[in-house]
Structure formats: C-alpha cells, structure tokens
C-alpha cells in the first residue's frame, strides 16, 4: 500500500512541474520581450508601446511610429517544466497612418 501511495505522489508531483498554462506562458514571454535590452536598442526610448498582439510565431509590438515583430522560438525540453524559448527581434517597420 505504501508503494502505491509513493507512486501516486510521484505522479502528481511530476505533473505539477509540467508546461505552464497558456496565460502564464504568454506572460513569461511578454515579460522577457519587455526586459530584453535589444528592445531599447531597436525602438527609440521616446516611443511608448501602444499594443502587444499575439501573432503566429510570436508577438507584434506597436508604438505610435513603429511596428516590431518578435519571434518566439521554443527550445527542446530536456525535462518537464516551463517551456524554454529564445527571442528573435526583427527589424522595425514604420507604421502607416491607417494602422
């Protein structure tokens, strides 16, 4: 009986450390983008971020004058836990008046 309880506890504890819920994962990704030094090197510091939009391979950041796509590349997982990723900042593009 004790063995079964031990197996059950191991099973439950391993599922607790699996991938994060989508909301928490996206919060981690957005925080990583905002805290990355490359963002302030690419977008002038006088610009403010108006919108962050989830797109197919990452996020689109919109300022009054620029748009910036940031790709989120997921890395292979060696063990259960939060998804690991790296960020690829594309070149900013000027926004049109109609955006």
Radius of gyration: 19 Å
**Alpha-beta classification:** alpha+beta
Estimate percent helicity.
Answer: 25-40%
Largest sheet: 5 strands, antiparallel
Low-confidence segments: 4-17
Whole-Å distance between the termini?
A: 64 Å
Instruction: Using the alpha-carbon principal axes, give the shape.
Output: elongated
Q: How many strands appear in the DSSP assignment?
A: 5
Estimate the strand proportion: 25-35%
Average pLDDT figure: 85
Q: What string, H for helix and E for strand, traces the elements in order?
A: HHHEEEEE
By DSSP (H or I, 4+ residues per run), the number of helices equals 3
Would you give an account of this structure?
With 99 residues, the protein is an alpha+beta fold. Helix content is 35%, strand content 26%. The protein contains 3 helices and 5 strands. The longest helix has 15 residues, at 2-16.
Summarize the structure.
This protein has 99 residues and is α+β, with helices and mostly antiparallel strands. The chain has helices at residues 2-16, 22-35, 37-42; strands at residues 51-55, 58-62, 66-74, 85-89, 93-94.
What topology does this entry show?
Elements: H1 2-16, H2 22-35, H3 37-42, E1 51-55, E2 58-62, E3 66-74, E4 85-89, E5 93-94
Antiparallel strand pairs: 1-2, 2-3, 3-4, 3-5
Salient structural properties:
26% strand; 35% helix; 99 residues
């Amino acid at each position: 009986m004790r063995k079964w309880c031990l197996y059950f506890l191991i099973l439950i504890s391993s599922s607790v450390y699996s991938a994060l819920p989508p909301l928490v994962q996206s919060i981690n990704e957005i925080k990583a983008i905002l805290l990355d030094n490359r963002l302030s090197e690419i977008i002038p510091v006088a610009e403010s971020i108006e919108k962050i939009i989830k797109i197919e391979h990452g996020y689109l950041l919109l300022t009054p004058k620029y748009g910036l796509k940031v790709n989120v590349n997921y890395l292979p997982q060696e063990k259960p836990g939060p998804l690991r990723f790296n960020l690829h900042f594309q070149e900013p593009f000027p926004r049109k008046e109609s955006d």
